[in-house]
Design a protein that fits this description.
Low-confidence stretches: none
Mean pLDDT: 84
Distance between the termini: 14 Å
Number of strands: 3
Order of helices and strands: HEHEHHE
Structural class: alpha+beta
Largest sheet: 3 strands, antiparallel
Oligomer: single chain
Shape: globular
Radius of gyration: 14 Å
Length: about 90
């Protein structure tokens, strides 16, 4: 599933949110409202729920987003997202 998702994201044209490199770390973002959706994301969420029942348990997939970084810049700073469970895949 991860290989399929990586391929989808490499070819995707839904990255519309841009952040200035020197101020925000140089990345583009994609969100569901701009077209970031594929069955592979739902399949991954379900596979993670099965693999991590004690952590994900009853918490549904509420939202997802993806970012692409320019390796020349730092990307998003360390931060916390508001959620019962937050999962980042690098």
């Amino acid at each position: 599933a991860l290989k399929q998702i990586r391929g989808l994201l490499l070819e995707s044209t839904v990255f519309f949110e841009t952040k200035m490199p020197r101020v925000f770390g140089g990345y583009v973002g994609a969100i569901v409202e701009d077209g970031l959706h594929a069955r592979a994301f739902l399949a991954l969420a379900e596979a993670l729920r099965r693999a991590l029942p004690g952590t994900l348990g009853v918490h549904p997939l509420a939202y997802l987003w993806c970012y692409k970084y320019d390796a020349e810049y730092s990307g998003i700073d360390v931060h916390a997202d508001e959620a019962a469970v937050n999962l980042n895949i690098w």
